[in-house]
Design brief:
- This protein has 15 helices and 5 strands.
- The protein has helices at residues 10-21, 39-51, 66-72, 94-114, 129-138, 167-177, 197-200, 213-224, 229-235, 239-246, 251-261, 265-273, 283-300, 305-321, 328-338, and strands spanning 28-32, 79-82, 149-153, 183-189, 204-207.
- Strands 2-3-4-1-5 form a 5-stranded parallel beta sheet, with helices on one face.
- Helix 2 (39-51) packs antiparallel against helix 3 (66-72), helix 5 packs parallel to helix 6 (167-177) and helix 11 crosses helix 15 (328-338).
Length: 343
């Protein structure tokens, strides 16, 4: 299947298209804006624009040529879309780690081809040093089919999962200092403050705003076959949020868990027993991912940072244990007790 069309962002697309047609598009861009507003989809649209084989009078991709269709099907060799990944296997050396990232990225792109309306990456997913090494290997190569190469790094704020361990971000910084002349690099983020200032300083920032409710309504009607003014209003101008709400976001279960963790033992154990057993890759994993996002939001807001960081560590340990043959009910009980009184 192909990616859905871009909905909204007409003004941004016009400016980017005109700059690309005139040869004035910066080589390194940062698309920043609220979560789920379409930053990565817009970056892939720009990739189409740059390598389209049959552009018309308007500075926009035709959407029909071989280059455009390959980008839409996530199969163009000159477009690299790096997304946050959760690598559970360990490589013995740097080369093996890069191979594991390349393999995992291929699997993720295959999943997105099957289901283009993809959900956000797991809370534990990140851009590790191996992903940046993969990028460094690809950049010196000449384009295989098009005139240019385009790299899209989605969720770039996950380059720095820990401020004390910024190797991936520093490696990317070296790449951004002198990108090959035939390459355009687009980073996307919902939290530019999480990126190293030295990285942001080398990028031209482009603000991607929320879209009008009318655009969200059009998307819901055409892509989901649904018409719900209540759902559209709850999306708050974010198509990604609409998809999360439509698919059952884990927010409600996170709130229930936090209330139980802050309550008495009866509440905590009742919540644990209510967790379906042996579903670690289903609802339980979604709950843990939701907890991570909640705690990271608290950390970004500077709320009781020491306790929040400790809580994130406990959730990450539970996330790793959930990948094995561990009863989610037991893990939920342990985690609720450990987070008792946590923010």
């Amino acid at each position: 299947m192909a990616l859905h069309p871009v909905y909204g962002h007409e003004g941004v697309r016009d400016r980017l298209g005109v700059a690309a047609a005139a040869g004035r598009l910066p080589q390194a861009l940062l698309f920043e804006g609220p979560p789920g507003v379409g930053k990565q989809r817009l970056a892939l649209w720009l990739a189409q624009t740059l390598i389209c084989e049959s552009p018309g009078e308007s500075p926009r991709p035709c959407g029909r040529c071989l280059a455009c269709t390959r980008v839409l099907s996530l199969g163009h060799p000159d477009v690299l879309w790096l997304v946050p990944l959760e690598i559970t296997r360990k490589g013995a050396d740097a080369d093996k780690q890069v191979e594991l990232v390349e393999e995992a990225l291929g699997e993720e792109m295959a999943l997105r081809r099957e289901q283009p309306l993809y959900r956000p990456p797991p809370g534990a997913a990140s851009h590790g040093i191996a992903a940046v090494r993969l990028l460094a290997r690809r950049l010196p190569l000449r384009p295989a089919l098009a005139r240019r190469k385009v790299v899209v790094i989605g969720g770039a704020e996950r380059l720095v999962p820990q401020r004390a361990n910024p190797e991936a971000a520093n490696a990317l910084l070296k790449t951004l200092e002198e990108p090959p002349p035939d390459t355009t690099i687009v980073l996307t983020t919902s939290d530019a403050n999480a990126l190293l200032p030295t990285i942001v300083s080398r990028l031209v920032r482009v603000r991607i705003s929320r879209v009008p409710d009318s655009v969200v309504t059009e998307f819901a009607h055409r892509e989901l076959g649904k018409q719900s003014s209540q759902l559209v209003a709850a999306a708050e101008g974010s198509i990604g949020r609409l998809l999360a709400l439509e698919g059952g976001a884990p927010g409600a279960s996170v709130e229930r868990f936090l209330r139980a963790a802050g309550g008495g033992e009866v509440d905590r154990y009742a919540t644990a027993l209510g967790q379906p057993p042996y579903q670690a890759r289903g609802g339980f994993t979604a709950l843990l991912d939701g907890l991570l996002e909640h705690l990271r939001d608290r950390a970004r807001g500077g709320h009781d940072l020491e306790r929040v960081v400790a809580a994130i560590g406990r959730v990450l340990e539970a996330r790793a244990a959930a990948q094995g043959n561990v009863n989610p009910q037991l893990l939920t009980a342990v985690l609720a007790n450990e987070l008792w009184g946590a923010p």
